[in-house]
Write a structure and sequence with these properties.
With 423 residues, the protein is of the alpha/beta class. The protein contains 14 helices and 17 strands. Bound molecules: pyridoxal-5'-phosphate.
Length: 423
Amino acid sequence: MPGTPARWDDAEVRAAFPALALMDGGIPRLYADAPGGTQVAGRVLLRMRAAMVDHCANDGGAFRTSRLTTEWRDRSHADAAEFLGAAADEVVFGLNTTSLLFHFSRMLARDWRAGDEIVLTRMDHDANVAPWLISARERGVTVRWLEIDTDSFQYRYDSLPALIGARTRLVACNHASNFLGTINDVARIVAAGREVGAVTVVDAVQSAPHLALDARALGCDLLATSPYKYFGPHAGLLYVRRELADRLAPLKVRPAPDSMPFRHAPGTPSFEAELGTVGALEHLAWLGERFGNAAPDAPLRVRLAAGLAAATAHEAALATRFLAGLKELPGVRLYGIAEPRDVAGRVPTFSLRIGGRSPAEIARTFAARNIYVWDGSFYAYELATTLGVRDDGGVVRIGFAHYNTLAEVDTILGLLGTLARDG
Ligand SMILES: Cc1ncc(COP(=O)(O)O)c(C=O)c1O
């Protein structure tokens, strides 16, 4: 029986991340750069050390370290499957999301014909645009665009029936924007694509640190995440629906296994990153046991969901405080959902500009105080173009994770306030 969840404890959560204790010249680090990559949980380091010290070997051999590598490889796929809402043989690890989507675009585009169509969106990171765009150009395929409403920062869902039809071969969309923070109704887009038999692709890189995923229930064919965005190592982790994997002729070297998922994961993987991902999921599961309502012996998927729910509740408090504070500041333009009561519709990623100030200059002002925020367009190429900021320095992006605190939010608001009032 699950007990009463403990109250969220910033100190205890932060102690799980070795990097959060670091200072520079006596000044603490304030990490508000989570959408670019989160800090790494201590459990990740333990797992990666084991992969690189206790059993550093290639898989598939008869000797002890190789057998252990094989066992842990299987465990990492099984755990990742619980995280994604998939089966273990539907999970492919890779270098990162970008290279995984390029790899699959090459296989998928082989049977595209001139006159076929694909649907891409103006909100996606270019990792879920360029691979399809390049293949479309090579195959004479027409690209149609799902636009965004620049007032609500939502997709124009009403246009879906006109965009998706009998000629549509692929629909690629974004779950949570790395620029706006908007959480999108990907179920609606995937359903529209499936109805016409198109391959559907969901970029869940920015939702994975915040929301429980369920790839099978969503019904998409590919769903991409990157463990370094959810407290793990630099890697990519892709769900590949079995029905799609079975019909794609793999791009593989001949002696490599024919079995899934290995036939779609060419070459020797980073076993240390796979194990590090196990560690990242252990961290989220720990949150679920400690601050959620999951019993320690509950299935991993239950503990993960409870962990993400606890994290999201804390993040909602951070986002509410941030948006309420922002409202008081003159001359700040936020690109994204701005009402504190609407925080459930967004992840805690905030892109803004202050008057005529350059985003790079603002980021440097923050950096001088050891506060880490990003400036630029973050590869959201189409979106930055649509918003008219791509050639103009982009925006300042402030992004939180569950290890951030209300005090940190206040520090950032204080500095934004000074910049805003100074014009
Ligand atoms: C939404 C989104 N998709 C894709 C990517 C690319 O991921 P990777 O760096 O793993 O290739 C990013 C990286 O920032 C992202 O934010």
